Amino acid sequence: MKRSLAFGVAIVGGAIGVVALAWLGFAWYESRLPETYSVMDYAIPDVGGAPAGADHMHGETSVVALHGPTGTPRRRFVLIAREGSVRLASGRSVDALSFNGSVPGPELRVREGELVEVTLRNQNIEQGVTVHWHGVDLPNAEDGVAGVTQNAVLPGESHVYRFRAGQVGTFWYHAHQASAGEVRRGLYGPLVIEPPRAPQSGARDIVVAVHTLDGTPLVNDTDGVERHVVAPGAAVRLRVINTDNAPIRFGIGGTPFRVVAIDGTDLVGPTLLREKTMVLAAGGRYDVSFTMPRTPVKLAVAGTLVGLALSTDGKADPPPPVPGPEFDPVVYGRPSPTPVDVSSHFDRVFTLDVGRKPGFLDGQPGKQWTLNGGIYPRVPMFMVAKGDRVRISIHNRTGAVHPMHLHGHHMLVLSRNGIAVSGGPWWSDTLNVEPGETYDVAFRANNPGIWMAHCHNLAHAAAGLTMHVAYTGVTTPFQTGGAAHNHPE
Fold first, then answer.
1. pLDDT, tens digit, for every residue of 283-325?
2. With left for phi above 0 and alpha for psi between -120 and 50, is residue 408 left, alpha or beta?
3. Phi then psi for 46, rounded to 5 degrees?
């Protein structure tokens, strides 16, 4: 009897094992992607509560038609992407990818309203390259995402981007082809859009691009302290850009200061801050301003030896700032009317749950990132129509920080963890969502196209934390995958 029972248990266990193996085999097989595919083919359309039939994903408008304006450009630039040795300010040489032979690439400054033309040339980067204009709400065809808005530019090829500078603020540009590797290795640079009028005489406007290249922390191209001569009484604006994959923490010592802009949008009623620690999302930007005192001022990036020192003779190296409480945009600034708030009616309401579970990503087993429970590319595609008021609740159910970046739009932050924003209006294009946090954000769907929404820890994006916001009736002719040479993460 015992022998028969054991035999039965073995039969049942074996059957369960066969079923489990069969399921694993099916899951592995289904996860594999073809050599080339469209991002429209696998996504799961989510209409956000709109009437049935509003999820049309294969319309008659191609992203190619959604291009920048014609006419004679006011500003022309050429960016030459190449692989090779780059010399840092210290004299150290690093093998890198670069625009125009430097890391970061050249600082591009334009004025609001100008028509900008940028020609990208790929000298020798084998896997191809594009340029994405991070935070700039430009026409979809100019967005620079390989396999979605264009093909990657291969060695010997070129591509022209055209857009009108419709915003004022601090932005940056970077590769969006295999970006987890290409940006890390140096394919990025600052973009500043200034007001039409020149700044006041004597004012100092300084970009502070923070990056880690080949394990070496940088401020701009300096692997140490970058020093500037600044006259006492001068108005100073520091444009801090986090081009890394993780948040950076920085402080400013030697003067009180204001945070005057976040992600390229000026704040209303910024007040003076002292001994505050600033936590800046990967891909995000903070503009800080102050009046230069007679004594030195230092911006220091926590956990590194890099920073910025300002003094009357350009030689000072003041001590790092005193760490203090974290700056919180939720309560900073003066309340001001906004197009919507937490009580508004929205045409589309979406939920975006960021999670993790065991599974297969293109045939590779592991614990995978998920969006609404789906593993890439079987993740939601939020469908909107032009003119819609859109609300998204973002929930981070993982133990990692996720800087969520939406292309082509700025999000109005409505609340964090159910608490409404009580300071000035906070507009963001790259929102740092900590483990366990929930944010409600909103935007007006006023820029037709197919727009990436992804984690700007680019290693996370490459591992599946990527989706799209698509306007109904818009499609793309571009393909993703090896044969198409397009890898848009």
1. 999 999 999 999 999 999 999 999 999 999 999 989 989 999 9
2. left
3. -125, 120
pTM summary value:
0.94
111's tokens: 């004025």
Cα angle for residues 439, 442, 446 (degrees, 5° grid) = 150
| Phi and psi torsions of 210, nearest 5° | -100, 130
**Of 483, 480, 485, 489, nearest in space to 127 by CA:** 485
Q: Is 38 contained in some domain?
A: no
Q: Which residue has the tokens 């929205």?
A: 346
Exposed e or buried b per residue across 455-488, where buried means at least 16 C-beta atoms within 10 angstroms of its C-beta: bbbbebbbbbbbbbbbbbebbbebbbbeebbbbb
CA dist 202 and 196 (Å) reads 18
Query: Within a domain: residue 489?
Result: no
Summarised one tens digit per residue, pLDDT across range 80-105 is 999 999 999 889 999 999 999 999 99
CATH of the domain at 116: 2.60.40.420
- Is residue 45 within 8 Å of 461, Cβ to Cβ? no
Specify if 135 maps to a domain.
yes
Strands 115-122 and 248-253: unpaired
